[in-house]
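Reviewer 2 asked us to include a model.

Predict the structure of this chain.
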Amino acid sequence: MFAGLVPEQIDELLQEAQSVRYPKGTNVFQQDEEAHSFFILLHGHLRVFKLTPDGQQVVVRFVTPGEVFGVAIAIGRKTYPATATAVVDSIALVWPSAAWPRLVATHPALAVNTLQTVGSRLQDAHTRVVEMSTEQVERRIAHALLRLAQQAGRKVEAGVQIDFPITRQDVAEMTGATLFTVSRVLSAWESQGLIAGGRQKIMIREPHKLLLLAEGSPS
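Predicted model (C-alpha cells):
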C-alpha cells in the first residue's frame, strides 16, 4: 500500500491511524454495515465471507498481514460488501473513511496502489467464477489450496503449511462444493500423500502433483 512513498509520507499516514486488536472470532466489520473505516492488517488472519440473499455463506478470501482491506470508499461504496472475521487474534491499522479523499489527494500513490490491489482481487474473483463454471470439483479444490499456499504458505521440511486455521467447511465455501465432497476429496488426497491434515490445518506435501491435478493433467 505504501509503495512509492518516502518515509516521511508514510509517517504522516501512520500518524492518522489507530492500532486495533481483534480477538479470534470477532468481526472487524459486517456486510452492509456503513463503511466507516479502511484497514491494513498487521498481524493475524481474517476470513472474508458474504451471505447470499437465500442465506448461503460464501468465503470470498482470506486476508494476510500487510494487506489493505475494507477500502469500500475507494470503489465508491458506502457499505461493506462482505463480513471480515478474525480467524486468530489479529491487529490492524485503522483509518477513518472520511480521511480517504484527503489522503489520496496528498499522496496519489496511495490510490494507485490500492486500486491495483482491488484489481488483483477482482481478477482472482473472475478466475474463481470461471473455475466454478467449467471445472470439476477436484480441480477447484486443488486450485483453492494452491492459492492459499501462495498467499500464506510457509515452507517446512514436509511441504508447504497453510499458515492459519482453515476448515473443510471453509474450502467448501470457497469452491462451491458441499462439505461431504470436500471431505471425501481431501481424505483421498491424504491417503495418497498429497496433503496432510489436522485440526483446522492443511499442509501440501506434494505441491507439484497438486498443481498437475489443478491443471487437469492426465499424468
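DSSP finds seven helices and twelve strands in the chain. The chain has a mean pLDDT of 91. We have added this to the supplementary material.
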